[in-house]
Amino acid sequence: FGHDSFLLKNAEMNRIVDGFLKAGDG
Question: Where do the domains of the chain lie?
C-alpha cells in the first residue's frame, strides 16, 4: 500500500476536478 501512490492519485483527481469545474464555469 504505497503512500506516494495515494498522493499521486489525489493530485490527479484534483486536476481532473479542477478541469471539470472550469469547463462547467465556461
Answer: 1-26
